[in-house]
Write a structure and sequence with these properties.
Blueprint (H helix, E strand, L loop, with lengths): L2 H7 L38 H14 L3 E5 L2 H12 L5 E5 L4 H11 L5 E5 L3 H7 L4 E7 L11 H10 L3 E5 L4 H4 L9 E5 L13 E5 L1 H14 L5 H11 L2 H21 L3 E5 L9 H7 L6 E6 L6 H7 L4 E2 L9 E3 L11 H7 L5 E5 L5 H12 L1
Parallel strand pairs: 2-3, 2-4, 4-5, 5-6, 10-11
Antiparallel strand pairs: 1-7, 6-7, 8-9, 9-12, 11-12
Bound molecules: pyridoxal-5'-phosphate (PLP).
Pyridoxal-5'-phosphate (PLP) binds next to helix 3.
Length: 375
């Protein structure tokens, strides 16, 4: 099946008693255990509503098995801790989602886990290798600079050295990028973003092969970040329209990125689909299309970033991303506020950097809104 069809049909639970076309919401947290082995229980990550969304995302990502979590960070932290413990070393990109960056800097030392942050060129990953390296955590395109890493190169290097690779595929979505096909072991998502798609639920995923999924599930049972039935249902409902939403959002972002690129008040646009962007060639080789996230730097001599965000009318200043509404935020005071100012400056997250999550509206309306605020 093609992605559009998988979105609608994969994993669907057919209720033979009512023959309804939608998966029922199974509200039970207690299930009869007699004459069965794998009795469902929400924190065991094996209820019918959890299974349904996991199967759908596995189909879309080309994975064998996976776990659905109550947030993206539950998925990321549980996955990393499933494969790295005291005495191990983890390599992470420096330009990662701020929460993942903060998880490493706030908690790893206490847990006895060594770590190195590296740049997005695959050589830096190579240079960071130690004898005790166990896990490599990457993101591509990254949040918020949209840097692109050569996924196949990282996967090949990691395989050679027996390292587990984890990629955060939130920005690209399974519609635009399938890292498992490129040799990555585990794909994680903040489902709060495109997979949920309407800025109204919080959830996450880790999908991989059967053995690694079992390891992640086993730690997840202790940590307990499970997702309840009604949110699983809402997530399944959203996943049915994932492909068409993301396709439209991507088309809109492509147009807006080209508009901004030509505007005299904009200093720099970060978007993998611009031919003058550093990650353009690699993106073409590993992404189906360039995605719907972009960031840009205003020329502060012409336009002040805070004033611009206050002037914009249709586009909403909001944290989070990936919804049907177009939203904008300043990463330095939102997603990356916990990172030190020195570290932000080093990797290029300036105070005039704005991140745009492009929605499904008519693109001409969005461009008019941006143009008016710039004027
Ligand atoms: C790329 C990326 N990964 C992970 C997360 C964390 O997801 P959640 O907020 O669902 O825990 C976010 C949240 O903004 C994100 O942008």
């Amino acid at each position: 099946m093609k992605k559009e069809t998988q979105c609608v049909h994969s994993g669907a639970y057919y209720d033979s008693s009512t023959r309804g076309v939608n998966t029922p919401i199974f509200t039970s947290s207690a299930f009869n255990y007699l004459n069965r082995q794998d009795t469902p229980y929400p924190r065991y990550f094996n209820t019918p509503n959890q299974d349904t969304v996991v199967k759908k995302l596995c189909a879309l990502e080309g994975a064998e098995d996976g776990v659905v979590f109550s947030s993206g960070m539950a998925a990321i932290s549980t996955t990393i801790l499933s494969f790295a413990g005291a005495g191990d070393h983890v390599i992470l990109l420096d330009d990662l989602y701020g929460g993942t960056h903060a998880f490493a800097t706030d908690e790893f030392e206490r847990l006895g886990i060594e770590y190195t942050f590296v740049g997005t060129d695959s050589d830096s990953v190579r240079e960071a290798l130690r004898e005790n390296t166990k896990v490599v955590v990457i993101e591509s395109p990254t949040n918020p600079l949209l840097s692109v890493i050569d996924i196949r190169n990282v996967a090949k290097f990691a395989r050679k050295h027996n390292l587990i690779t984890v990629i955060d595929n939130t920005f690209a979505t399974p519609i635009n990028q399938n890292p498992i096909e490129m040799g990555i072991d585990i794909v994680v998502h903040s489902g709060t973003k495109y997979l949920g798609g309407h800025s109204d639920i919080c959830c996450g995923f880790a999908v991989t092969d059967k053995k690694k999924a079992e390891r992640i599930r086993s730690l997840a049972r202790h940590l307990g970040g499970s997702l309840e039935a009604t949110t699983c249902y809402l997530l399944e409902r959203s996943l049915k329209t994932l492909a068409i939403r993301v396709q439209r959002q991507t088309e809109n972002a492509f147009r807006i990125a080209h508009f901004l690129d030509k505007h005299p008040a904009i200093r720099k646009v970060n978007y993998p689909g611009l031919s003058n962007f550093s990650g353009y060639e690699i993106s073409k080789s590993q992404m189906e299309s360039f995605g719907a996230m972009l960031s840009f730097e205003l020329n502060e001599l012409k336009v002040n970033a805070t004033r611009f965000v206050r002037q914009i009318k249709l586009i909403k200043p909001a944290v989070s991303l990936g919804g049907v509404d177009t939203t904008i935020c300043a990463p330095a005071v939102t997603s990356h506020a916990k990172m030190s100012a020195v570290e932000r400056k080093r990797i290029g997250i300036t105070d005039s950097l704005l991140r745009l999550s492009v929605g499904i509206e008519e693109v001409e309306d969005l461009i008019a809104d941006i143009e008016e605020a710039l004027d």
